[in-house]
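PROTEIN DESIGN WORKSHEET
SECTION A - STRUCTURE
LENGTH: 746
TOKENS:
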């Protein structure tokens, strides 16, 4: 080390404004010394003068003492030595706050020196730190410390003491910004309060969105931790409490299982509604724009027709899947025999004047303007999840048609499964109802419902505004339970399947697991190819289990019980019909009239005992209650479709316990899908029925497990054994290990 000639290495000088002093360090380059100087608070380097400088305060002095002790060869001016000696007599450190013996204290963490006597007189020593009480004298002494660094909590406590107040453990305040109003927790001295606050659903660090759903939990938190509430925050809490009370009444109405008939309406109906159906009618009349989301099989069609009649909301437009137009026509004529009904078939059909006009989604765009000109007073969107894609033409057409309904009219969205995959599917449906503004905007919807218990919170808000839903177990306790049973079957094409499975796995491993890492167009193409590859693998498994499945169906029919069989691919549907040529069928190629005839024939007690259905054709809008057994030969990617298909039998009119038999190929993609479908079902149920459970993408989940070589394999193949059963991975309904003796005797 060589000192610069005629210039000390360390000195003091006035800053540019002459109001303060700074420490100056000048020395030839030394890497170790530079590293040490960089630890000085507020240091900077002047490239023109080739020197370091730092504020002349106690914190810099404490660090310089350490440096000079290690580097005594550095020269110093007398002025600097005098200043350094003076700082050594002052206390330097952090002033924080803490909880001790059940109350708050200032906590002094010393860097150097000793606190003044005015502080030590009332202080406690606790594990190397000084604890000072919240008194006016202590606050004044702390403010006189030149080199104390105060934490935010300490400054808040000082301010409270200066105003003659006792510092609270924490305080809740209201803040406003471009993102809206939020409740903010200001911590004073209790370190346990903020972690507890962050456990509140929807809390992010020390902030919480204003939401009446949280008011009960927030009140409990405030009472438990004795948190002070600022005036503006108190007003916000009072408003939230009032909103919560009002919302609870609406939520209770959305859950009502009994309602009084409307006598003048009941007299005009062609049948008698159950008490729970009248409750739904009364809710819809009050809400005007709402979901009728009762569980499948509880008569949403009848509820909607009765609501139209009660509101005198005619002309009315019913938009539904093509397969359900005849059902709507039949039910309309039965329940409202005094109303005229028109069914639109084809884009070129003329729109006739009628009280109720029925059309399928595919025709909405073609007839939207003509229907709007008739100034409808009501719009019913049956199976409204058909409008889950905001970019789809049918969604846009139905939304524009809904806008033709006046604000006092009715907009009813009928669906037992408003969410098929994820919560964002509600956005287009809420927009169709004119209810999206109740939830903010489409852009803020996802942000609004994120974090802990987000599904339960969303469910509560749906019920608060526009969502009536009851389960069969709540309104039809006499309806026997539904159970899901897995029948593991062996593959007849094992070598072919394993070869294909290995090829798919190797192909998947050549790609990133998360396609979001790629260009959007490339990712979309790969995502479509993934689905195609997995579907091909699923079809190969279905082909391999076909022999065992046909044997199972044959053995089952020998019991004399009717059976509904669902299959996804045409190849499988055809194979079943070739094996059982006298079976009825509901397939994509069938006309609507043929489907109606097949349903009627199957419901006839003397009709054929077997009906083969394409899952996506027959999973909704029909009744097959003659059978209490449903068989699935293939799995769909969406769990709601399985639930809907099961409920063709499990609905009003069913007298026996319904069993849903899932014939899964052991040790194949079937097993992986079964578990992941159930995980996905739990998320959907969380939003629809208000239960909080984790989410997971189904296709991505299958890809992940195949790539990692850990497909879900625990089933033992027992082809042809009708009584072999296994729990359908985490099934939503009650399961049984064996069919009861009464089932076998029936």
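SECTION B - SEQUENCE
RESIDUE ASSIGNMENT:
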């Amino acid at each position: 080390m060589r000192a610069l000639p005629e210039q000390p290495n360390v000195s003091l000088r006035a800053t540019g404004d002459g109001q303060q002093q700074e420490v100056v360090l000048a020395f030839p380059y030394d890497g170790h010394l530079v590293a040490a100087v960089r630890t000085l608070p507020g240091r900077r380097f002047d490239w023109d003068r080739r020197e370091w400088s730092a504020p002349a305060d106690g914190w810099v002095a404490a660090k310089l003492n350490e440096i000079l002790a290690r580097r005594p060869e550095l020269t110093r001016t007398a002025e600097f030595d005098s200043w350094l000696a003076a700082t050594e007599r002052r206390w330097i450190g952090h002033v924080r706050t803490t909880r001790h013996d059940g109350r708050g204290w200032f906590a002094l963490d010393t860097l150097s020196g000793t606190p003044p006597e005015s502080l030590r007189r009332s202080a406690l020593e606790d594990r190397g730190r000084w604890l000072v009480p919240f008194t006016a004298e202590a606050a004044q002494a702390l403010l006189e410390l030149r080199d104390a660094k105060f934490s935010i909590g300490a400054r808040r406590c000082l301010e409270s003491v200066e105003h003659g107040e006792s510092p609270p453990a924490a305080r809740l305040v209201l803040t406003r910004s471009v993102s809206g109003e939020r409740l903010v927790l200001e911590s004073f001295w209790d370190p346990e309060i903020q972690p507890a606050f962050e456990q509140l659903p929807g809390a992010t660090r020390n902030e919480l969105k204003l939401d009446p759903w949280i008011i009960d939990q927030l009140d409990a938190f405030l009472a438990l931790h004795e948190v002070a509430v600022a005036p503006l925050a108190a007003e916000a809490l009072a408003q939230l409490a009032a909103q919560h009370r009002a919302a609870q009444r609406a939520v209770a109405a959305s859950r009502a299982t009994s309602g009084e008939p409307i006598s003048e309406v009941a007299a005009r109906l062609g049948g008698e509604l159950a008490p729970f159906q009248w409750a739904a009618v009364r809710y819809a009349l009050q809400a005007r724009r709402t979901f009728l989301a009762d569980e499948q099989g509880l008569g949403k069609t009848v509820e909607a027709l009765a609501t139209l009649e009660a509101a005198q909301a005619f002309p009315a437009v019913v938009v539904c899947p093509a397969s359900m137009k005849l059902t709507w026509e039949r039910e309309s004529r039965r329940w409202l025999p005094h109303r005229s009904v028109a069914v639109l078939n084809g884009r070129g059909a003329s729109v006739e004047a009628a009280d109720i006009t029925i059309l399928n989604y595919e025709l909405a765009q073609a007839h939207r303007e003509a229907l709007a000109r008739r100034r409808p007073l009501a719009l019913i969107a049956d199976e409204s999840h058909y409008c889950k894609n905001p970019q789809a033409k049918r969604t846009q057409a139905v939304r524009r048609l809904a806008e033709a309904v006046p604000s006092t009219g009715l907009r009813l969205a009928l669906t037992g499964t408003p969410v098929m995959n994820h919560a964002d599917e509600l956005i287009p449906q809420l927009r169709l109802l004119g209810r999206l503004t109740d939830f903010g905007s489409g852009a803020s919807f996802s942000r609004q419902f994120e974090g802990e218990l987000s599904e339960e919170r969303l469910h509560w808000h749906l019920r608060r505004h526009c969502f009536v839903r009851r389960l069969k177990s709540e309104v039809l306790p006499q309806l026997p339970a539904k159970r899901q049973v897995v029948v593991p079957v062996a593959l007849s094409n094992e070598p072919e399947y394993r070869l294909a499975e290995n090829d798919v796995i190797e192909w998947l491993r050549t790609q990133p697991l998360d396609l979001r890492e790629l260009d959007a167009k490339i990712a979309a193409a790969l995502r479509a190819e993934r689905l195609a590859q997995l579907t091909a693998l699923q079809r190969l498994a279905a082909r391999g289990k076909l022999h065992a499945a046909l044997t199972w169906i044959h053995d089952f029919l020998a019991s004399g019980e009717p059976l509904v069989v669902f299959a996804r691919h045409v190849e499988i549907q055809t194979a079943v019909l070739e094996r059982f040529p006298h079976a009825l069928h509901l397939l994509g190629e069938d006309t609507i009239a043929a489907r109606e005839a097949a349903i009627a024939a199957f419901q006839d007690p003397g009709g054929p005992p077997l009906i083969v259905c394409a899952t996506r054709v027959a999973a909704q809008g029909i009744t097959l209650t003659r059978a209490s057994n449903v068989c699935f030969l293939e799995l769909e990617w969406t769990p709601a479709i399985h639930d809907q298909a099961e409920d063709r039998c499990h609905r009003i009119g069913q007298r026996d316990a319904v069993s849903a038999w899932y014939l899964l190929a052991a040790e194949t993609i079937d097993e992986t899908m079964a578990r992941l479908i159930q995980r996905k079902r739990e998320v959907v149920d969380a939003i629809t029925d208000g239960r909080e459970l984790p989410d997971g993408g189904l296709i991505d989940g299958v890809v992940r497990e195949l790539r990692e070589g850990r497909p879900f394999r625990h089933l033992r193949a027992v082809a042809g054994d009708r009584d072999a059963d296994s729990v359908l991975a985490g099934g939503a309904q009650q399961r049984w290990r064996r069919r009861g003796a009464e089932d076998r005797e029936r």
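SECTION C - NOTES
The longest strand covers residues 103-112.
The longest helix spans residues 231-255.
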